[in-house]
Structures are given as C-alpha cells and as structure tokens.
Amino acid sequence: MNELLSKCPFCGQTATLTRTIKTDIWNGDEQSSTFSIRCTGCGCETESSVDSQETIDKWNRRTPDESVIGEIRKYSIDGADDSTFTHYVPVAHGEELHFYDNSPEQAASDLTEFFIRERIDKQRQATLD
Fold first, then answer.
1. Using an 8 Å Cβ cutoff, are 42 and 10 in contact?
2. 3-state DSSP helix/strand/coil % of the chain, to nearest 5
3. How many beta carbons lie within 10 A of that of residue 87, not counting itself?
4. pTM for the full model?
5. Percentage of the chain exceeding pLDDT 90
6. Structural domain boundaries in the chain
7. What is the SS3 assignment for 122?
8. pLDDT tens sequence across 54-100
9. What pLDDT is recorded for position 17?
10. Could you give the dihedral angle defined by the CA atoms of residues 104, 110, 112 and 116, in that order, rounded to the nearest 10 degrees?
11. Which class for 65: exposed (0-12), middle (13-18), buried (19 or more C-beta within 10 A)?
C-alpha cells in the first residue's frame, strides 16, 4: 500500500500508512479503526481518517501549478582550514527563510512549522475580515 504514496512534499522522503485499531478491552473485538500517513524523514503527518483511500488521496494531493512551494536547499561552504560545512536552508514560496540548519530533517521541520504558522495567520486574518 505504501507504494501508492507520493514522497513527502517537504523533505522528499518516503511515507508510511498506519492503521490504528481501537478494540474492546473485555473481548478484544474491533470497535473502530483510523488511518494516517507519516513521513519517514521529517515526521509530518496527516490527520486521522476512517477511510484509507481518503487518507491516501489527501496525502498525494498537491497544489496545482505550484509544485514547489517549499523545498530544502543544500549548501556546502568551504572553510579556511580545508574543511567543508554543509547547511540546509528551508525555502518557502521561492524565498529562503532566515535560518540555516545542520540537518535536512531540522530544515524540513522548520519549513513545516513556517507553513503551519502561515496557515494560522491566514485563518486569523479571515476571521478579522
């Protein structure tokens, strides 16, 4: 089933579909189950849903004509002592965010946090209008 999942839109890693089953504690009968998808790289995750196909469709949905609204850029910087430093920079809407991270996972986490804050700000603005 995981082969049906697109790669993570934030870090490009694979994702896994998880089924959570709630059972009756007395007889062990299944009461309900939900599905969610989580990135194996940065850990971003969908909301739980009772329909596995709906969960897969939500994960695979991308904004049309804006395939790259977020990305991670890798920079290698040569040091004075012949060492090389690697930094990962989260990029949102084509603009580099102001911080540099030492791992792609941290950069993906920072980028996810940026988009969450952006969505909250838009929702807050919509309630004020």
1. yes
2. 30, 35, 40
3. 15
4. 0.47
5. 10
6. 2-60, 70-128
7. helix
8. 889 888 876 544 445 667 777 776 766 666 767 777 777 667 776 66
9. 93
10. 180
11. exposed
